[in-house]
Amino acid sequence: MTPPATEASDVVVIGGGAAGLSLAHHLTGIAPVTVIEPPHGPPRPAERTWCYWHAGDDGLDEAVSASWSVLRVHGVDGCPVTVEPAPLTYRMVRSTDLERLVHGRLARTGGGRVLRATAESVRGVPGGAEVRCTSPDGRSLTLRARRVFDSRPPRALPPARTHLLQHFRGWFVRTVTHQFDPAVADLMDFRVPQPARGLAFGYVLPLAPDRALVEYTEFSRSALTTEAYESALGHYCRDVLGLGALTVERAEQGVIPMTDARFPRRVGTAVARIGTAGGATRPATGYTFAAVQRQSRAIAAALRDGRETIPAPHGRRALAMDAMLLRALDTGRINGPAFFTDLFRQVPTERLLRFLDGATSLREEWGIGLRTPVRAMLRTATELPFVPRRPAPAARTGDHHR
């Protein structure tokens, strides 16, 4: 039997999703990096959309396919809240565009490359770690590296006090007539039927006067069937937005965890988890992409400076507040649509968006907290220490576009 081939690399990144590509992007020029991506075919995920808000140049401009400087939230009563979050803009990145940007940078950088293979196992070895892979033609390959960053979704979520899901289906639609204002993104539209617990909303990202990504999203304990999402989207497009005749050109569907589970960031001395697997998803909102960028920049700076610490993607205060909000939503103590609509009505938008990304000061968070249902949140905070952490129900996770 032919022994498996062995290769060496300074840094190995497993996975070519948002977290893996972003880390490779920030490591370019700092360390030689090998990105292991699944071969073309069924193992590779479908094209995905990621959105985030940012101010200034973050090095991703080539991958940004659309942006919006005006955001809108519709309450259950139909009254819109329109805000301008300057200097922030809301940006859309397609996975194919980010892949093209990062692959191009790796190709132009000495030592950088993309390896098409399936990562089978990762283990620590003296001086680093090794990744065992299978190539598309079935050959075995072992990569040895000083550091390995694994972005693959966890097989099972860690125990938690609250287990919710953010699950969605989106249509890329083209309408017969001009129906959209390309300058305005509808971030949350609560004019849809609400579940008994949690919340549901529509989401509209215009790409042209006659094209948009229209999505139906729920925060609840269980995902829906594809047929149920299709029905909800049909109702939203027809009865709420009044879009008239349209063509669905492409669809996206996914599930991400909203949980106060503690995600371990280290798996041995030389192996770290990144992205959702490393706790980058903001528990109470599902936003991931912006946290992935912060985490990637911090990891790149640590490697450049010779530090071993892998920074947490979210601070302890942010996680504590998220745990309270998740519990309050899951118990029905707060009305989700009213909660988020009131925040957009009462809190300066730029500050609120930084809060949703976990980038506000203690003073700012105190002021935002006073604009929430204080009694319900205090009751939840009091009981949380006594709520046991339980294993999560089996559920699929994936890349969301927040």
Q: Can you tag this structure with a few keywords?
A:
single chain, 402 residues, alpha/beta, FAD/NAD(P)-binding domain, Alpha-Beta Plaits, 3 domains, seven-stranded mixed β-sheet, globular
Explain how this protein is built.
By secondary structure, this protein is an alpha/beta fold. It has three domains: 5-66 and 90-157 and 260-305, FAD/NAD(P)-binding domain, CATH 3.50.50.60; 165-258, Alpha-Beta Plaits, CATH 3.30.70.2450; 316-386. It is built from nine helices and 17 strands. It has helices spanning 18-27, 95-108, 226-240, 289-305, 316-331, 336-346, 349-356, 362-369, 374-383, and strands at 5-14, 33-37, 49-54, 64-68, 70-74, 80-83, 89-94, 113-116, 118-125, 128-134, 140-150, 163-175, 184-189, 199-208, 211-220, 246-259, 271-273. The strands form three sheets. Strands 1, 2, 8, 9, 10, 11 and 17 form a seven-stranded mixed sheet that branches. A seven-stranded mixed sheet has the order 6-5-13-14-15-12-16, sandwiched between helices. A hairpin with a 2-residue loop joins strand 14 and strand 15. It is globular and about 65 Å long. The mean pLDDT is 90.
Structural class: alpha/beta
In helices, the fraction of residues equals 25-40%
What is the CATH topology assignment of the largest domain?
Answer: FAD/NAD(P)-binding domain
**Overall 3D shape:** globular
Average pLDDT, to the nearest integer? 90
**CATH evolutionary superfamily of the largest domain:** FAD/NAD(P)-binding domain
Strand content: 25-35%
Give the H and E element order: EHEEEEEEHEEEEEEEEHEEHHHHHH
Instruction: List the uncertain runs.
Output: none
The termini sit apart by 47 Å
Largest sheet: 7 strands, mixed
CATH class of the largest domain: Alpha Beta
Total E-strand runs: 17
For the record, the CATH architecture of the largest domain stands as 3-Layer(bba) Sandwich
Number of helices: 9
The Cα radius of gyration reads: 21 Å
Count of distinct structural domains? 3
Protein name: Lycopene cyclase
Pfam families: Lycopene_cycl (PF05834)
Organism: Streptomyces buecherae
